[in-house]
Design goal:
single chain, 248 residues, alpha+beta, Ubiquitin-like (UB roll), Fumarate Reductase Iron-sulfur Protein, Chain B, domain 2, 2 domains, 9 helices, 7 strands, 35% helix, binds iron/sulfur cluster, binds FE2/S2 (inorganic) cluster
């Protein structure tokens, strides 16, 4: 395949960026999207140009690093996958592909396609954990009965990889699907109930502090989420938040 790429280039967080056009040729349909980007970068390096900076780590849909907005969609045109799992067979010879960073006030661009998602880390630090006090009398976690449905839902919520596609997709740049998933994964389990009220209040407070928008129930986040995190998690977070607020 021969392709035209229109890519967001931005030197650093302070410099204004712009779309720049590149051509790549002989791209195999079996390549992953990131392998195609590697081909472009090798081409740029050989001609003495600066390669395109983009985030990636595992390249197998686990780490959540590969944040790219491809042809107007977070993680590109396929469903239930991350950018690193996107294959070039989703495109055809002669296509023009636009590639931009995930855009949101709380995800400032560091360089080219790399954005700063440390706002997610700070939300996690505000409550995305459980405290385990090992006094010597700690109960074996396996001895605590948990309903199958609750365990399954907690597991589903825990599959969120913190990629930020939900934020990039949302017209309000809301992080509620991410935070909803993180709150839910603990709220559904007895081990997470101990600090549940404090957790939801602190995580939501941090989310607001970071400048994410509110949820207006559009549902675009659920569609673009590579892990299929359900809107049900936002509803659960709202219920948790309301009951924690009423407890005062
Ligand atoms: S909820 Fe989905 S889209 Fe949002 S950060 Fe988690 S995995 Fe990514
Ligand atoms: S590089 Fe890890 S999820 Fe894509």
């Amino acid at each position: 395949m021969n392709l035209t790429l229109k890519i967001w280039r931005q030197k650093d967080s302070k410099t204004k960026g712009q779309m720049v056009e590149y051509k790549v040729s002989d791209i195999s349909e079996h390549m992953s999207f990131l392998e195609m980007m590697d081909v472009l970068n090798e081409q740029l390096i050989s001609s003495g140009d600066e390669p395109v900076a983009f985030d990636h780590d595992c390249r197998e849909g686990i780490c959540g690093m590969c944040s790219m907005f491809i042809n107007g969609e977070a993680h590109g045109p396929d469903r239930g996958i991350t950018t690193c799992q996107l294959h070039m067979r989703m495109f055809k010879d002669g296509d023009t592909i636009t590639i931009e960073p995930f855009r949101a006030k709380a995800f400032p661009v560091i360089k080219d396609l790399v954005v700063d998602r440390s706002s997610f880390e700070r939300i996690q630090q505000a409550g995305g954990y459980i405290s385990v006090n090992t006094s010597g009398n700690t109960q074996d976690a396996n001895a605590i009965p948990i309903a199958k449905e609750a365990a399954d839902k907690a597991m589903d919520a825990a599959t969120c990889i913190g990629c930020g596609a939900c934020v990039a997709t949302c017209k309000n740049s809301s992080a509620m699907l991410f935070v909803g998933a993180k709150v839910s994964q603990y709220a559904l389990l007895p081990q997470g109930r101990v600090e549940a009220a404090e957790r939801v209040l602190n995580m939501v407070e941090q989310m607001d502090k970071e400048g994410f928008g509110n949820c207006t129930n559009t549902g675009a986040c659920e569609i673009e989420c590579p892990k299929g995190i359900s809107l049900e998690n936002i509803a659960r977070m709202n219920r948790e938040y309301l009951s924690a607020s009423l407890k005062g």
